[in-house]
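[job 0417] fold request received: NADH dehydrogenase [ubiquinone] 1 alpha subcomplex subunit 1
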Amino acid sequence: MPVPFEAVLHMSMVVVMFGVAGTGYNVVRRLAEDGKPIRHSLDDWERMMMKRDERLTGSLRGQSTNPIAPKEFATNSAWSTEKLS
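[job 0417] inference complete; emitting structure tokens
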């Protein structure tokens, strides 16, 4: 059954708005990931490495090729301290 011509304008607006929303979401996610593709199915090891990379470079997706860690890395521990009562 053909689509009535009155619905073409409305359906095209719906399709365009879904496209704008999807593109906007993709742009925002890529900006949050430093312009790199989105990661899927992260396991504990990958999360731990992301925390380490953040401590080394200041970015979750940043990586360093320097074999020697900066001096701040020695006191920037991943272990959180808890207050003793």
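[job 0417] notes: The longest helix spans residues 5-32. The mean pLDDT is 83.
[job 0417] exit 0
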